[in-house]
Each structure stands twice: as C-alpha cells, then as structure tokens.
From TrEMBL:
Organism of origin: Candidatus Pantoea floridensis
GO biological process: enterobactin biosynthetic process
Family membership: Belongs to the P-Pant transferase superfamily. EntD family.
Any one cellular-component term (Gene Ontology): plasma membrane
Protein name per Swiss-Prot or TrEMBL: Enterobactin synthase component D
Length: 241
C-alpha cells in the first residue's frame, strides 16, 4: 500500500487480510480487514476486549474497532511495548502509553496507525475518496476560495483533491487535539502548499488556538494517493513547556 514497507505477521483468522508498516522515520502501520470474517470470539482470543459502549453496535463498527486495536498493538510492539491494549478517555480520545504520541484512523476495510516516542504532535488519517457530488456539495464547508482554486489547478479529479484536503485537515485536528482540547472548524486552517509529485503539503492556521498554535503557524504533512482512498500524516514539534 506504501512504496517502502515491511509486512506484518498476520493472525490465523481471515479477518486481517494484509498488514504492513512503512520504513519511514515515523512509520505508519496499516491493515486491510474483512468485516464478514469478524466474530466476537476474536476479541477474547486476541486479548482485545470490546468496550461496553460497543456491545450493541453494528458488525461494521465492531470490526473497525477490532482491526484498529489489533493494528495499534502491532505498532506499539515495534516501540517496545508488546501486548498493549488501547483504551479511550471520557472524551473518546485514545489513551496512549506515557511518553508516547499516537494516532489512528479507519475507513471501510482499511485501518492505519502512527505512534512515536519523539516529542511530536501527530495525526494520521485515511479516507475513502468521496463522490464528485459530495465534493461539490461540501466544498463551501471544507475549503476557502483560495484552496478551491489551488485544488482545481492540481492534476487530480476534484473529488480526490477534496478528499485529500479533508484528510489533511482531519490529521491536523487529531494532531492538535491532545494539546488544545478545542474543537476546530475546517476553515480555521488553510492549505498553502501542495506537491503532488513529492506527496508533501503545508497548512497554515487561520485562528489563534494558543501561544504555541497561533494564527499563521505553518504545519507540514505527507500524503499518499491510493486507488480509491488517501492517507495523510501531519507531524509538528510538541510545544516546549
């Protein structure tokens, strides 16, 4: 799924169909899963309990939870903590081990996870490419006029470009939430740089969130365009105390 990656060992169940981790300095772990092969016994077999809040959820939601938590466990094991079970805070944000920053995302049959011990704010996101009609209908909520012009100038279908922008802003929100615990509007950050060939993007905050994340703060991101979906990763140095 990524240009440079190592395969992860798969469990015996057909639920996880493929998995790998990139060889980048801040690696992204990923997996493809099949919700049709999900069953409740896997949670016990893999020591990844299903939260009480999801006991009555639809099968799709339970499958997404199991796949993402299995992938988190594989990713965190690479950092020296085998057997880790990710749980959530009351605000539903993930509770990573002390001294570790992480982020996860899933869409349809794909999950991605990024985790590091480096002092970085990070957010990872994966999105299925939206329909052209959806891209047009949501454009005013998602992007400024400057951003729309920038996207229309790219050698991409507008729906794919709009999905990329949405994913970049989702990664930004995930990276900032642990530091700010503030909601964020799509127009409170603006895409100011996009290199399709290199897979690099730059965003600029248009709102004062804090001293460390003030208006005009620039943040760097990477992205990968796949068949039918996009993945984005935003990283930024943690504010010094």
């Amino acid at each position: 799924m990524f240009p440079s990656q190592t395969s992860l060992a798969l469990p015996s169940s057909a639920f996880i169909r493929a998995a790998g981790i990139t060889r980048d300095s801040l690696p992204i772990a990923w997996c493809e899963f099949d919700q049709n092969h999900w069953h409740s016994d896997l949670h016990q077999a893999w020591h990844l309990p299903l939260p009480e809040s999801l006991q009555g959820a639809v099968k799709k939601r339970k499958a997404e939870h199991l796949a993402s938590r299995w992938l988190v466990q594989q990713s965190v094991a690479q950092l020296g903590l085998p057997g880790f079970v990710l749980r959530n805070a009351p605000d539903r944000s993930p509770l990573w081990p002390a001294g570790m920053q992480g982020s996860l995302s899933h869409t349809h049959n794909i999950a991605v996870v990024a985790a590091t011990r480096e002092p970085l704010s990070l957010g990872v996101d994966v999105e299925q490419v939206m329909a052209e009609e959806t891209a047009e209908e949501t454009a005013d909520l998602l992007m400024s006029k400057h951003e729309k012009r920038r996207l229309l100038a790219q050698p991409l279908p507008f729906a794919q470009a709009a999905t990329l922008l949405f994913s970049l802003k989702e990664s930004l929100y995930k990276a900032l939430w642990p530091q700010l615990h503030q909601p964020m509007d799509f127009l409170q950050a603006e895409l100011v740089g996009l290199d399709i060939t290199q897979g690099i993007a730059q965003l600029r905050l248009t709102h004062d969130f804090s001293t460390a994340f003030a208006s005009n703060t620039r943040l760097q991101a990477r992205f990968w365009l796949h068949a039918g979906h996009v993945t984005t990763l935003l990283i930024h140095p943690l504010p010094t105390k």
